[in-house]
Specification:
The chain is of the alpha/beta class. The protein is 39% helix and 16% strand. It has helices at 28-40, 51-61, 77-86, 104-113, 125-135, and strands at 20-24, 44-48, 65-68, 95-99, 117-120. Helix 2 runs parallel beside helix 3 (77-86). It binds calcium ion. Calcium ion is lined by residues 26-27, 69, 71-72.
């Protein structure tokens, strides 16, 4: 993956935004769906296709919120979150899991590594909106 950026996330990037959200997601179609929903809600979208790219972008872009897939190539979303939480530069950024892993075991692990909200795919857009508003300041 050269650069996971889709065009959709860039459409209105110079308008006043409600917040900046990093999507860490290896599946292009899932990333696109989230990027579209976020753009419609006036959030600026930053994208990463795996955990290491996610850590890199969290450091370079300083997003307000991270939406983390858990099943990722290389280091998984749990390990990625552990590393984000170990770094003082990224430890404060809320991380929301967005995953197909429905087992209680993963929910508990996610909680242990500091994930603040656990969403399973596919997420209804109303739920998504409500969760975003909980963690991000309202746009003007
Ligand atoms: Ca995945």
């Amino acid at each position: 993956m050269v650069n996971g950026q889709t065009q959709i996330g860039k459409v209105s990037s110079d308008k006043t935004m409600a917040g900046r959200v990093l999507i860490v997601e290896d599946q292009v179609d899932h990333r696109m769906i989230l990027a579209v929903m976020l753009s419609h809600l006036h959030y600026q979208v930053i994208e990463a296709a795996d955990g290491l790219e996610g850590i890199h972008k969290a450091l370079s872009e300083a997003p307000d919120l991270i939406i983390m897939d858990l099943g990722l190539p290389g280091i998984d979303g749990l390990e990625t979150t552990v590393r984000l939480k170990q770094n003082p530069k990224t430890a404060h950024i809320p991380v929301i899991a967005h995953t197909i892993w429905k087992e209680e075991e993963y929910k508990q692990k996610a909680h242990q590594v500091g994930i603040v909200e656990y969403l399973t795919k596919p997420i209804p857009s109303e739920t998504f909106k409500r969760v975003l508003e909980k963690f991000l300041p309202q746009g003007s």
